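[09:14] KT: can someone run the structure on this one? pasting the chain below
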Amino acid sequence: MSSEHELVGVLRRNAGSVRPVLPFDLRRLEPVVFDFTEGNRGLARVDLNDTAGFADALFREIEASGSPLGIGRYDEDRVVYRHSPLFDGRMERRSVHLGIDLFVEAETPVFSPFPGVVHSFCDNNNLGDYGPTVILEHELSGVVFYTLYGHLSRASLDDQVRRRRLAAGEQLGAVGGMHENGSWPPHLHFQVIADMQGHEGDYPGVAMPSERHRFLELCPDPNLILGLQGV
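[09:31] RB: done, structure tokens below
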């Protein structure tokens, strides 16, 4: 377990040694940054239960931009989870996003940003869930932390073995299609976790607003690793 403060410091100090998690130079791209909050009135015209239509709308905007990448923001209070009962709570819905979403075409390779080992993996096969998920464990300057990769292809789990070592820049899987990724437009959910708290193959990627502060301490900004512009 590492504290959020020391993990943020370590990630900042090691920013120069990070390998990209996708086959693009993320620090030089100008991605499309989507707004999935209630303030985006255009979402009211989108049927979130129609995954294919939702995906088509997102990827048309990405294509028109000339960029290969769209972004869903960290610490965003979203309305796009209303299509799945997975985010319902007895008193409060989960809606605060704890990772960064990287919208790219299905089968885009996904890589480890640092040396690490496979902590755990699972096919979280529920509507609105991660689908195939891999979690890596890393250690930098004596600080242990984790990175989570959600919405992968099912084939990404075929050769996974716990504690398997990965070099920085080594491929760990590929982005999944909407038929296998929890019924979402194709994208990678990338999240940084200071303490797994006993979870294996899964970890909350969305928090209730009342627990926002606690979860943001446990899950610092993934852009410390990604280095995206304008996010």
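[09:33] KT: thanks! The mean pLDDT is 91.
[09:34] RB: yep, looked fine to me
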